[in-house]
Amino acid sequence: AIFTVSMAVLKVLEKAGFDEKPVVVAGHSLGEFSAAGAAKVFSIHDGALLVRKRGEFMQEAVPPGVGGMTAVIGLPSEKVEEVLKTVKSGFIQVANYNSPEQTVISGEIKALEEAEEKLREAGAKRIVRLAVSAPFHSELMKPAAEKLKVLMEEITFKDAEVPIINNADVKPMKNPEEIKNSFYRQMFSPVRWVEDVLKMKEMGIDTFYEIGPKNVLKGLIRRIDRSLKVINVEKPRDLEKLLNQT
Predict the structure, then answer these.
(1) Is a pLDDT exceeding 80 seen at residue 233?
(2) Is 138 designated active site?
(3) 137 is catalytic
(4) In the CATH hierarchy, which fold is given to the domain comprising 65-133?
(5) Domain 2-60+140-245, classified CATH 3.20.20.60, yes or no
């Protein structure tokens, strides 16, 4: 749904004559596929297929109830990493570096429970178990990544029209093989969103357009650097307001 809504909003903007072309694109987790769609790497049909099958592959990789994810709020990521090294009851790792004060961890349920207790003791302000069905962006997703890798070979990838800043390495990508490799590794690697945003700022970007449902990234970007301008485009009134300004 996120990919579909994002692509639909983008198409409406294009047809309405919004002519501010992006200098660079990026997305958080699944949003990286939307970013690739915006950069014309693949067709909307193929992008939707990739996103749907990616979800299926991830569900198949780990049985329900075996793994999960937890948001850790109010503790620096370095401290979170330090605490995770002490967890002995199962596999666990950082999944998302969302903002300087919000890190998401992913792993086996027993390991999550142990980590949550230790992170509270370490001073985390809030610990929130996420309503997800699998430990995304962790090594436990490698079987899913292998399936996605095979599927991507059946789909036509083109050079990106503008650079995509990827989640796994925080680097600009345009080459199709590079993009496929990034999508593959992203499934079992942390989303380095804080670094992505700072990388784009370093490239001279000071205005971000969040295209798609909700405004989660707007909040995260503002927490990373309040000097950055973020415009969310989701509803008809957002489109109308944006078009009236141009």
Answers:
(1) yes
(2) no
(3) yes
(4) Alpha-Beta Plaits (3.30.70)
(5) no
